[in-house]
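Example A, followed by Example B.
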Amino acid sequence: QVQLVESGGGLVQAGGSLTLSCVSSEDMADIDDIKWYRQGPGEQRALVAAITDQGTTKYAQSVQDRFIIRRDDAKNTAYLYMNDLKPEDTAVYYCNAVVVGLNTDDDYWGQGTQVTVSS
């Protein structure tokens, strides 16, 4: 059972930056994919960024060139570096860990961290 704890959220002005962290209770080297999702007010949870155990990354178009996802398996920590933040980035951000199995994948979620961007 993987437990994930996010931190780093807060209130920031538009154009500012924040770095979110996601710490895993288990060896992150055993986790295949790390993803960051967000859920804004009245919206569905949506994928923001993802990174595989090989370091391959992908981003939602809305955050491309502004956000960077990284993982440091030695520290059991994943990061989401968020730059040039916009009010529409306001949301609860969730860390998600995927462990690929033979038949099914196991999904684990953190509790979320609030990011609020003021205009």
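Example B, a separate protein, is given below in the same form.
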Amino acid sequence: QVQLAESGGGLVQPGGSLRLSCAASGFTFSVYAMSWYRQAPGKERELVGRISSGGGNTIYADSVMGRLTISRDNAKNTVYLQMNRLKPEDTAKYYCSTQVGQVSYWGQGTQVTVSS
């Protein structure tokens, strides 16, 4: 079955960096686009960005453009979210996601807290 497992979250000071990873299994990873979402307390889940199956195309939310970068390694079935120049408003639980057929799949999420 499809499984997505995020890791790499933690506490970081404003201006700092983190790299999140999402290990995928149970489907042909290289065929599907992958997305990162986040959800802050009391807010709706929002799209952070998406990467195409081959990794050549990405889209980002305006709020993270130029600071967060999505990449993937199809040989390792892993998608990454490099987070630079982090701000307190980036504090949220981050999820990776994919859609296989008509079904969307989500990982359990990893918490990122940006605070001094």
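On Example B: The chain has a mean pLDDT of 97.
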